[in-house]
Amino acid sequence: MRKLWQQLAADVSAPFLAALVLSAAYLGFVAWDQSHWWRVKDDYSFGWLVPAFVVFVVYDRWPRITAAAKACAADGSPRAAGWHKWILRMLVGGMLVCGVGMFLLGSLYRAGSGSSHPGTLAIALGAAGILLPLLFLNAPVAQSPARGSVISDGRVQLVQWFLFPALVWLVSAPMVSVLEQQISLFLLHKVVTVVAFVFDVLGLPIEQQGNVLALPKGNVGVEDACSGIRSLTACLFAGSFLAAVFLEKLWKKITLVVAAMGLAFVTNLLRGLFLTGWAYHNGPHSIEGTVHDVAGYSVLGLTVVGLLCLLPLLNLKFSAEAPRDPTPSGSSQT
């Protein structure tokens, strides 16, 4: 253990390494708090993968983290100057104060009333608000820094590698009940409306009665679980992980995450159409059990496949440079 600590201390400064250890302790508490929901709510069962994926991302990025730490400590490393410095100080200070407040609020809420959606969300927000400023304030110090902006600041360049480990817990934390219900009802209404419209276009007799579809062989009730909220959160996590591991630029990461949400919605519509069609021909009871579960898991599988297909497109590099002639000047080819 001592040799491991010495090796890590050789890669990064001791204060930054201590900040990493303290951050890991905060995230350990977050994982313990959220594990209750991962166990009791099927919608968030993917959360068991979050700690392992966070460790993998940090391990995968460690060479780039150490390189950024060394660049941050090197002479000439950019530091925010002038009004950029004051903006950065206010951002870091405000995030730290809000993070501590949210973490304490969530912890007190949990201590008083046990596991709750607001308490868990507050703890996740607070941990993220503490972790990022903590790493920023303990970043290596440059003896002769250069003037820079907020974005070019060497400490910001170092901390940005920890955005996924700090923020992914917001995806695995249950949303506040009111917000989750509103999103679920919105998605549910869209699914039922689109399914009814498609069957109407195909000339198949079907009637929409709220969240119930009246079919010739019986009625099919579209429950909240079929709204797509479960697949939306799981696919959002999958898209965030793939973006963190395989993409470099921020706009590409955002594009993939947005695509994950779009694909989750589309594949859930296809699931609704498939189940309704199956019930239309075989009766409502035919979609219970295996058919329903397989169709549900297929949503996540199809979304992940779609995201994997998008990765090569987002990683394409275009160059307008003309190809260079490999022949040295002054020589001729025969």
Provide a quick synopsis of the model.
The protein is mostly helical and 334 residues long. The protein has helices at residues 2-11, 14-40, 50-73, 83-113, 117-137, 154-159, 163-167, 169-172, 177-201, 229-246, 250-282, 290-314, and strands spanning 78-80, 146-148, 207-209, 212-215, 218-221.
Going by helix content, strand content and strand pairing, the class is mainly alpha
The number of helices is 12
The gross shape turns out to be elongated
Oligomer: single chain
Order of H and E elements: HHHEHHEHHHHEEEHHH
Q: Main beta sheet, described?
A: 3 strands, antiparallel
Q: Let me know the average pLDDT.
A: 81
How many distinct beta strands? Answer: 5
How much helical structure, as a percent, in the residues?
55-70%
Plain-language structure description:
The chain is mainly alpha-helical and 334 residues long. The protein folds into two domains: 2-173, no CATH class; 178-314, no CATH class. The protein contains twelve helices and five strands. It has helices at 2-11, 14-40, 50-73, 83-113, 117-137, 154-159, 163-167, 169-172, 177-201, 229-246, 250-282, 290-314, and strands at 78-80, 146-148, 207-209, 212-215, 218-221. Strands 3-4-5 form a three-stranded antiparallel β-sheet, with helices on one face. A hairpin with a 2-residue loop joins strand 4 and strand 5. Helix 2 (14-40) packs antiparallel against helix 5 (117-137) and helix 11 (250-282) runs antiparallel to helix 12. It is elongated, with a radius of gyration of 25 Å. The model is unreliable at 318-334 (pLDDT under 50).
